[in-house]
């Protein structure tokens, strides 16, 4: 498993960069100190406390399975890119459509503008090891890594942050996420997405940790895309644009590697950061255990010259544009 000790700097060591390019993902243990993990969990719970189900459209988060049909795509979802909204767990409802869990146990995810609208999550974007180490308020959220320094080490010229989410994976009902590539959803031409995924609670085989098909970012093309339909809603469609990042020697010529691919589970402790290449095939299983698994994730795409964010992606930029990671 390509995990390594916390980097000596705010960014990545050359060997971590090499691991990421080889495997398509990288686990960085202890990226967040316990005080920051606690502050972000407290913020997640504060948001859940504020959820008013009496005015909520009861939108459920559905991944739509392998082919994406039946992926959540109502207006509440499609207009959530610059808001904090709550998507409920399918299995939190009975056959008659009644909620069977208290709200704190019924939410699948909270998204998709936490990195701007929630002060503690926003502070994480500008955090670094030189931030204060007592994470008791938004402006003291500390991290042992800096997202901007990591993006720089991965070669981003103008990284833009989008689609931030707290994913709850509640005990007993937290839904599985089927195999997917993040660039299917956040497509730029050529592909450039990288996921930053922070465990706020331990993620284990029992409660639905991530698992990865190592190296699949080198041979798995982004050959389909989740797009907005003209009449409303979303659907999967063949990708007519570039299917691999440019200039890295990746491509379908390497596809023979696929047969040797086996999923590798990424069990991690709270505070770990997992970086995920946008072409990497990954998934997570249903949480059938009694233990929750709250994580926080955001994605970064290249906003620099030569990269086009697709106007049919489900998530469209807010009026102010996608959030710059560099000052
Ligand atoms: O946290 C999970 O279970 C899935 C997250 C994921 O696959 C993603 O953010 O791309």
From TrEMBL:
<comment type="similarity">
    <text>Belongs to the PhyH family.</text>
</comment>
<keyword id="KW-0479">Metal-binding</keyword>
<dbReference type="Pfam" id="PF05721">
    <property type="entry name" value="PhyH"/>
</dbReference>
<dbReference type="GO" id="GO:0046872">
    <property type="term" value="F:metal ion binding"/>
</dbReference>
<keyword id="KW-0408">Iron</keyword>
<dbReference type="InterPro" id="IPR008775">
    <property type="entry name" value="Phytyl_CoA_dOase-like"/>
</dbReference>
<protein>
    <recommendedName>
        <fullName>Phytanoyl-CoA dioxygenase</fullName>
    </recommendedName>
</protein>
